[in-house]
Amino acid sequence: MIRKNPTGDLPQIHESAYVDQTAIICGKVIVHENVFIGPYAVIRADEVNAEGGMEPIVIGANSNIQDGVVIHSKSGAAVTIGEHSSIAHRSIVHGPAEVGNNVFIGFNTVLFNCRVGAGCVVRHNSVVDGCDLPAGFYVPSTTHINAHTDLSRIARVNASATEFSEDVARTNVELVAGYKRLQNEF
């Protein structure tokens, strides 16, 4: 469902993107080329700041927002998902937040008030809260990273993790084309 927010902003969705019929895209959301938005995803840009303004939620080209993902923002803060990035099933991205290009965010992960640099892999059931994760870091499953985390103890992404991330992104771009072909059949 595509709908306006209370201030009248309507999502801008590139014609090449695929949005599942069960997804909800609300308000000041910009979805770029070849994006896959899966079943029951919710992307909602509807809260305003103290001055009544709001930054957009932007989903970069060739990225995928998988089943049950929630993307929202507090008080009109910006949320940006870079290009060729994957936000896996049931994750939450709550702004202010920025996810760089070529990033993989694993199942049930929570991102809040943070930046995740380009090429990072954040595995399943992890939390990144209140900090900036530099480019190329590998966060193991069930890790909690915050402003007090010693990032020197966090590993760098290896070739296997990068290959996995690229495969997920590539697979979901292929799904966009497949679902777009089927769109008028159901």
From TrEMBL:
CDD domains, sorted: LbH_gamma_CA
Domain of life: Bacteria
Gene3D superfamilies, A to Z: Hexapeptide repeat proteins (2.160.10.10)
Family recorded in the similarity comment: Belongs to the gamma-class carbonic anhydrase family.
Record-linked PANTHER family: CARBON DIOXIDE CONCENTRATING MECHANISM PROTEIN CCMM (PTHR43360), CARBOXYSOME ASSEMBLY PROTEIN CCMM (PTHR43360:SF1)
Name the record gives this protein: Carbonate dehydratase
